[in-house]
Amino acid sequence: MKKITSVLIIVLLLVFVICEFLPREVIEPIYYSKEISQKAKEYNIDPFIIAAVARTESSWVSSASSSVGARGLMQVMPDTGLFLAELRGLELDIDELYEPLVSLDYGTYYLKMLYDEFGDWDLVYAAYNAGPGQVRAWLEDEDYSSNGRLTYIPFEETRNYVDKVNRHLENFKKSYKKFPQD
Predict the structure, then answer these.
(1) How far apart are CA 155 and CA 144, in angstroms?
(2) Quick one: pLDDT at residue 135?
(3) 92: nearest Cα among 57, 74, 63, 84
(4) What is the pLDDT of residue 102?
């Protein structure tokens, strides 16, 4: 009995030591990949970027609502959705933002619009989170920018948001050789 216990302890220790040195990266799933691919092609945006924003915004929960009223996978604010619909000559019932394809469409359209303005993905992520007016103000403030480049994001939530989107983006790109299709 002592021999079996000793062998079991040694095996458990070996398993523990081996597990300590295994890579901890886990392939994180990408949901709604078909819809994301469709919107990526439509708006000429890397699908991994759309996936990283959706993952950061809602953790893939299409019925997600924030405390400030943002809705759906891409957490589009109702006023933003209505503004984007008006720009595009469309009608929008704000409850449609809970529909995955609608949320991805409006969120991706907004990302494209922000990229066309700022031309830098970190600025786009910051603007998606804090608003483009806030990012414009930071870019004009020497405490936060230099030579038209943002050097510091003063809102901790927005700093953390930009970091999270970039972490998800990096993880997705490491995990998948190409964007997955359903």
Answers:
(1) 11
(2) 98
(3) 84
(4) 98
Domain 30-175: which topology? Lysozyme (1.10.530)
- State the pTM of this model: 0.85
Low-confidence residues of the chain: pLDDT under 50: 11-13, 15, 17-24
Token pair 């295994």 is found at 22
pLDDT of residue 12: 45
DSSP secondary structure, 18-65, as one string: HHHHS----PPP--SHHHHHHHHHHHT--HHHHHHHHHHHHTT-TT-B
| 28 part of the active site | no
Helix (H) or strand (E) holding 98: none
What are the φ and ψ backbone dihedral angles of 42, each rounded to 5 degrees? -60, -40
With b meaning 16 or more CB within 10 Å and e meaning fewer, what string describes 104-129?
Answer: bbbbbbbbbbbbeebebbbbbbbbbb
Catalytic, out of 57, 86, 91, 156: 57
pLDDT tens-digit readout, 61-96: 999 999 999 999 999 999 999 999 999 999 999 999
Q: What span, in angstroms and rounded, lies between the C-alpha atoms of 153 and 124?
A: 13
